[in-house]
Design goal:
CATH superfamily: monomeric porin ompg
Helix content: under 10%
Number of helices: 2
Structural class: mainly beta
CATH class: Mainly Beta
Strand order of the largest sheet: 1-2-3-7-8-9-10-13-14-15-16-17
Largest sheet: 12 strands, antiparallel, barrel
Strand content: over 45%
CATH architecture: Beta Barrel
Shape: globular
Distance between the termini: 42 Å
Order of helices and strands: HEEEHEEEEEEEEEEEEEE
CATH topology: Porin
Amino acid sequence: MRRTVLSILFLTVITAGNALAAYEFNGPLEARNEFPFFLAVFSPSLDSAKPETSFTTSLTHSSVFFIKSGKDISLWYDMEVTDLRFRSKRVIFDTLELGLELPFYLFSSGFMDGPLGSYHDAFGFDDYGRGRRPANSFLYEVRKNGRSVVNGEDGRFKQGDLRLAIKNAFVDTSTLTLSLKADMELPTGDARSGAGNGSIDTALSALLDATLSERVKLYLNAGVVFPGALSGHDKIYLKDYLYGNCSVEALYSEEVSFLAGVMAQEWPFDDKGDKAFRRSPIVLILGGRYSAKKGVFELSFSEDLNTTGGPDFSVGLAYKRRF
């Protein structure tokens, strides 16, 4: 599994456009895997290799249905997740960037079960067993050997874990930027309710931005996460896991661009009791971007490609102001 998780699908974006004036690419979409277990134990945010000074506000809403039990670990989710996130970056010494990221979560029974059921029925898609539970019901529980570790609370607004980052660009030319990044996540969220994991998490990653043509840019992220134990009502000791992302941005005009990406990651535990835990989570991320005079607006849509370790879908809005 570890040897194959970084096999990233190459994506192309088909678009049209007239001759473009000078345009500044803005990196991959403001997105991550919004699956509740990964949000608690460090879910990597997509990032550009190029250092920048900016402030981003994002709001993502996800529908999650995943009720699986392995040999030791059980993940029971029937819920919706709203993720309000603030992300600040500041460049110092030209090539060095300092970052801070703070999320706030609302876990709820939500309102999307009816529309999702109609959508699945209309196209003949699997409903993941959602129809066997009452519509718009709430379930958020993580268990280890039958003992409860996390019990989420319906309708409660919670602060998540605070993330600090440092990034340095070792290569920065007009067509290629290569950086190394280190993250540390501090346990400021409530682990017992699923808003954090109660431990310090760290991560190391390599980032690459490459200009493929006047209108197309490629973004690659690859790294390893060193999660601390999930320390709620009981403890789950986690293993290091790899992740990778490949994104493409294609310009339609001076103000508008379209983006597509695929993110893959390992499970941070070795329980193989259910086949869902034997497959690496893979999430497709699609979206568009509008660059105004004072900032950048984004709309994104994410879909779980292999029905394991990702939300059924996520819809995100973001606004970034660069300084």
